[in-house]
Amino acid sequence: MNLKNCRSGENRSDKMDYDQLLQESKLLKIDTYEKQMTPSIKGLYADNVIFINKDISTRSEKACILAEELGHYHTTSGNILDQQKIANLQREKRARTWAYEKIVPLSKIITAYNQNIENHHELAEFLGVTENFLEKALQRYQEIYGLTCEIGGYIICFEPLDIKNDTTK
Question: How many secondary structure helices (H) and strands (E) does the chain include?
């Protein structure tokens, strides 16, 4: 089997929740506000200010949105609202990839495996993200690494999600 080595991502064993992301924003001197917005807009980043739609009901979804907006801070800038432009789509993908690696790092998926997390619902809850965000993160990892990758003695298969301890060879 030809395995790619994966980046481990965040090295923390706890989940990166909404409050921790707010703290990170503060450390980066980014002002973050919850504001009434059009329902189709969940978050915006511009000029060291992040707006999160106040109508988002769960903290896990707010964490996903805030992580993506922090991804824009770290990876992109400028007006990318027109998603018909390829350059804007690429910037959006970079920001989302940053968010996936931040709050759904492969190292935490392995931690969940070691704690006997058995399905996507439990995994999303363990990570503090929405199931949709988890699914998109796994799809993105598959785009990056292919069907499988190796990290720290574990083999992660992305479709279907499965983990094997490679140290038992």
Answer: 6, 7
Instruction: Judge contact between 94 and 71, C-beta under 8 A.
Output: yes
**Tens of pLDDT along 74-83?**
998 666 665 6
CB-based contacts of 87, cutoff 8 Å, min separation 6? 80
CA distances from 45 to 27, 53, 95 (A): 16, 12, 11
Q: Please, are residues 147 and 1 in contact by the beta-carbon 8 Å criterion?
A: no
- Give the Cβ contact number of residue 56 at 10 Å: 19
Question: What single DSSP character describes residue 13?
Answer: S
Determine the Cα–Cα distance for residues 38 and 121; give it in Å rounded to an integer.
28
What's the CA gap between 84 and 92, in Å, rounded? 12
Predicted TM-score (pTM) of this structure: 0.87
pLDDT for res 90: 81
Q: Could you read off the pLDDT of 111-151 as tens digits, one per residue?
A: 999 999 989 999 999 999 999 999 999 999 999 999 999 99
